[in-house]
Amino acid sequence: MAQLTFPIVADELLVDVRINLAAPDLAVLQAASQPAPASVMARAILDTGSNATGVAASIIQQFQLLPAQHSTTQGIGGAPAVDLFRVSLSICDASQLHLPRFTQPDLLVMELPPGFPVDVLIGMDVILDCRLLIDGPGRTFTIDF
Fold first, then answer.
1. What predicted TM-score, i.e. pTM, was given to this entire model?
2. Which domains does the chain have, with CATH numbers?
3. At residue 73, what are phi and psi to the nearest 5 degrees?
4. What b-and-e string marks burial along 24-39, b requiring 16 or more CB atoms within 10 Å of the CB?
């Protein structure tokens, strides 16, 4: 089983991620001999209180994606409408890119509201596909996959 270990910074579970088009969309480009877009590196926070993963609009716009569907999300202030998009997401260690990556090749994500403190919020839809070990006294956390 592969694993990545990260420090707990400011009491938050922060990771590096790469975002790109969803795998089926990348396959279409490859079949048409078209170049794939470069993936976008971003900072993400693991949030066990969120069911869904969210990505900043600035990242989604780089891929010129159209919404896959429209929905609502439940927040403290009510249930705002959100657009959902298909992307691939890989959790990695940007300082050690030779290490394995935990990848979700076709993930439905919501667009995060403007001003969100990180570019990506990783919710339980992703967390439930790995094992998360939090070592509070050691101030680290490990993702096994």
1. 0.91
2. 3-144 (2.40.70.10)
3. -130, 150
4. ebbeeeeeeeeeeeeb
pLDDT in tens, the chain (145 residues): 999 999 999 999 999 999 999 999 999 999 999 999 999 999 999 999 999 999 999 999 999 999 999 887 766 666 778 899 999 999 999 999 899 999 999 999 999 988 899 999 999 999 999 999 999 999 999 999 9
Query: In 3D, which of 139, 142, 127, 107 has the Cα closest to residue 51?
Result: 127
59 — phi, psi (to 5°)? Answer: -75, -45
In whole angstroms, what is the distance from residue 20 CA to residue 5 CA?
Answer: 23
Query: What single-letter amino acid sits at 24?
Result: P
79-101 burial: b if 16+ Cβ within 10 Å, else e: eeebbbbbbbbbbbeeeeeeeeb
Q: In what order do the strands lie in the sheet with 3-7?
A: 3-7, 140-144, 131-135
59 and 42 Cβ atoms separated by less than 8 Å: yes
Place of tokens 């935990």: 102
